[in-house]
Amino acid sequence: MSYPILDPDFPIPALGHLCALTVMAKAPKAGRVKTRLSPPLTLEQTAALNICFLKDTTANLATVVGGAGLISYTPVGDEALFDGLLPETFGLVAQRGDGFGERLLCAAKDVLAIGYGAVCLIDSDSPTVPGAVFAKAVEELARPGDRVVIGPSDDGGYYLIGLKVAHAAPFERITWSTGTVFEETVERCREAGLEVVVLPVWYDVDDAATLAVLKRELLEGVRPGFAEMDGYSAPKTVGFLMELGA
Fold first, then answer.
1. Name one Pfam family in it (predicted).
2. Residue 119: count of CB within 10 angstroms of its CB
3. Total Cβ atoms within 10 A of residue 234
4. Residue 8: pLDDT above 90?
5. Residue 91: beta bridge partners?
6. Helix then strand then coil, % of the chain, to nearest 5
7. CB within 8 A of 14, min separation 6: which ones?
């Protein structure tokens, strides 16, 4: 199954009542995705795990009332690598921009230009974020008035940022890929006079240590110490981890 590629130059007004739940994702190809997990995994295994993360995250998002699923993907030309991995309701929109902050800002601008009433930019490394958290983000963005919704990660970054207007401030003067990303983003928002809504803390799976946390959560039922609720069941990821263990 292939998915429609949406173009911000051709807006769709009928989408205005929806929040675009937009996963920022690289095309899943060995050697391009989740490389910090090798070792302990092989590059082929990291790509397979990335596919499981995509399947679980998008299946979770597809259940959120008031949301519409998208993948903001890179590189252009590898769209076919997503075929059959996503719920049939999902669409694709190409990433653009150079640095990470610029890519996030451009994604927000493009998704809102397509016609959605709000956008949540979501990482592809957190397959067990509870569905209720995504629903809360959509609910907060549906309220009257302008605001930014942020889901902090326990490593100091964030797994979600949601906006109704493509403000540049949350993406400027941020020390990306450090433990101060969330703190700096909140500060930039407050400097710009933007209301900030903070969601529950969750975590990214991007190295051997966080892979171990994921295994404990999904295979042993051990909730991460910072978690206020149970995570999403992530069945595709569970199957991969069980096969890996065997």
1. DUF2064
2. 28
3. 24
4. yes
5. 70
6. 40, 15, 45
7. 115
Residues 229, 132: contact at Cβ < 8 Å?
A: yes
Q: Which two tokens stand for residue 15?
A: 């989408």
Q: How far apart are CA 111 and CA 121, in angstroms?
A: 10
pTM (2 d.p.): 0.97
Q: At what angle do helices 208-220 and 235-245 cross, to 10 degrees?
A: 100
Measure CA of the first residue to CA of the last residue in the chain; give whole Å.
Answer: 31
In the three-class reduction of DSSP (H, G, I as helix; E, B as strand; rest coil), residue 26 is classed as: strand
Tell me the per-residue pLDDT of 10-59, one tens digit each, with 9 for 90 and over: 999 999 999 999 999 999 998 899 999 999 999 999 999 999 999 999 99
Closest by alpha carbon to 33, among 68, 81, 94?
81
Our CA angle for 72, 34, 180, nearest 5°, is 75
The domains found in the chain, sorted by start residue, are 13-245 (3.90.550.10)
Q: pLDDT tens digit string along 60-88?
A: 999 999 999 999 999 999 999 999 999 99
φ and ψ at residue 71, rounded to 5 degrees: -120, 120
In the chain, which ranges are continuous DSSP H helix? 43-61, 100-114, 131-142, 181-191, 208-220, 235-245
